[in-house]
Design brief:
By secondary structure, the protein is an alpha/beta fold. The chain has helices at 3-15, 18-21, 34-37, 42-48, 65-75, 90-106, 123-135, 148-151, 154-157, 170-182, 197-207, 211-223, 237-244, 256-270, 274-286, 291-306, 312-327, 333-345, 351-366, 381-385, 425-445; strands spanning 55-58, 79-84, 111-116, 138-144, 161-164, 193-195, 233-235. It is extended and about 95 Å long. The model is unreliable at 1-12 (pLDDT under 50).
């Protein structure tokens, strides 16, 4: 490399965005993804041993996919050839593969082909690299935010390992922010930045697991904040709001606002007001609340306030939980909104809540009452000799699959905990229970059949 090339690269490195300058260069600097790069993990072991297979990194934006791929190149003895699926075509792939074959023949050095946003390659483009991945001519690393099962052709996918990256947590984002503020070489350390606590809290909350968003906003806010007489730059909430183009809402995730607004959401749903429910949901999500915290309350609400009036409510709430966990924010906001509207407009019943409360109280009051012998399972001859299962009647052997039989301990026979309401499905459940009760009463009153 000549002097002018080196100077050009150094200038380009200094002028690169903060997110690019602060990319970790060693595993010790890498933040997050402990399930991949933590001590003793398979990925780290393969990386340190320089025997990585072709693989695909699947994760949300800003979780470290490109950084990890570049780190692989730096820690192994392979040549690194990066391309972006947005701009590269088949000709680019063939050129890199030809160079890889020549390099392998002359020096024995392997080539890592890194394809960023591999989900943007069509079938023909993916087919181009397939035979060379299979032969080991290149080691392919793909990075994608989309599910590889749907975006990568099956033959190529079967020849690659898929490693999943998770959104960065708040503690990990805090670590990255601290490093950016303190690093005088690659970060903002020379600018003497003082990030005010409200600004820092809002910045981290708005990250939603994306380190790139945080670093870009932090750099923009810092450069837009003039230094004081002592040369310090006090970056406040207003500067971070401007950089993110997002206004901070009054919300304290550890204080009164956290509890007041989740209470307002719950009570709005209980009151069957979808509009209020959507408003309070938006207040929390837009302020950076953890969507899984919200959806935990929705799951609880589905059983506590809807219950058996619409059992599908629990299914919808759990589907929202899966969506929040699977695709994260902001894409999962509509799944949570759908759950909120469904729960608000579902028929309401707290009979399940009351029934379990009464059963729990009965257990506390009466203690561990013995299980009636006839519904114990006689799994050994000794148990059978003690009367386990004696007199048990198998409901499927009787008309209507019903039989008069006690299932509660003797002291509680006849006790009812669950009292259905007239709301939603519970109206049908009540009719069903009444119908069964009449059938059992008639069967009990009928005279026994005489033997012929």
């Amino acid at each position: 490399m000549d002097l002018w090339t080196r100077l050009g690269e150094e200038r380009e490195s200094k002028e690169a965005p903060l997110a690019a300058r602060l990319r970790p260069r060693t595993l010790g600097e890498f933040v997050g993804q402990e399930h991949l790069v933590g001590p003793g993990r398979v990925f780290r072991h393969a990386l340190e041993g320089d025997h990585l297979p072709s693989f695909i990194l699947w994760g949300p934006p800003g979780s470290g996919k490109t950084t990890l791929a570049q780190m692989v190149a730096g820690l192994t003895s392979s040549h690194f050839s990066p391309v972006s699926a947005v701009s590269a075509g088949v000709a680019d792939l063939r050129r890199i593969i030809a160079e890889a074959q020549e390099r392998r023949g002359h020096t024995g050095q392997r080539t890592i082909l890194f394809i960023d946003e591999i989900h943007r390659f069509n079938k023909s483009q993916q087919d181009t690299v397939l035979p060379f991945v299979e032969r080991g001519t290149i080691i392919m690393i793909g990075a994608t935010t989309e599910n590889p099962s749907f975006e990568v052709i099956a033959p190529l996918l079967s020849r690659c390992r898929v490693f999943t990256l998770n959104p960065l947590g708040e503690a990990e984002i805090q670590t990255i922010v601290s490093r950016a503020l303190s690093d005088p070489e690659r970060g903002l350390g020379q600018l003497q930045v003082e990030l005010e606590p409200p600004a820092r809290e809002f910045l981290v909350a708005q990250a939603r697991g994306d380190a790139r968003v945080v670093l870009n906003a932090l750099e923009l806010a810092t450069l837009a904040t003039p230094p004081d007489a002592q040369g310090r730059r006090r970056v406040g909430l207003g500067a971070i709001e401007e950089a993110l183009q997002h206004r901070a809402l009054l919300y304290d995730k550890a204080g009164d606002q956290h509890y007041d607004i989740i209470s307002a959401l719950h009570k709005s749903l209980r009151g069957s007001d979808p509009d209020a429910g959507l408003y309070w949901l938006a207040r929390m999500l837009e302020a950076g609340e953890d969507p899984l915290y919200i959806v935990r309350r929705l799951v609880r609400f589905a059983s506590e306030d809807v219950g058996m009036a619409d059992p599908q409510a629990l299914v919808v709430a759990m589907a929202a939980q899966q969506a929040a966990h699977f695709i994260g924010m902001p894409e999962a906001d509509l799944a949570l909104a759908q759950a909120v509207v469904y729960l608000a407009t579902a028929p309401k019943s707290n009979s399940l809540y009351r029934a379990y409360g009464q059963a729990k109280e009965e257990v506390r009051q009466s203690g561990p009452l013995p299980v009636p012998l006839h519904i114990r399972n006689p799994v050994t001859p000794l148990m059978k000799g003690l009367g386990y299962g004696q007199g048990y009647q198998y409901p499927h052997d009787h008309p209507g699959h019903l039989v008069q039989q006690d299932y509660l301990p003797p002291n509680l026979q006849g006790r009812r905990f669950y009292q259905p309401t007239e709301q939603g499905l519970e109206r049908e459940i009540q009719k069903r229970l009444e119908r069964w009760g009449r059938a059992l009463s008639q069967a009990e009153a009928a005279p026994p059949e005489e033997e012929s």
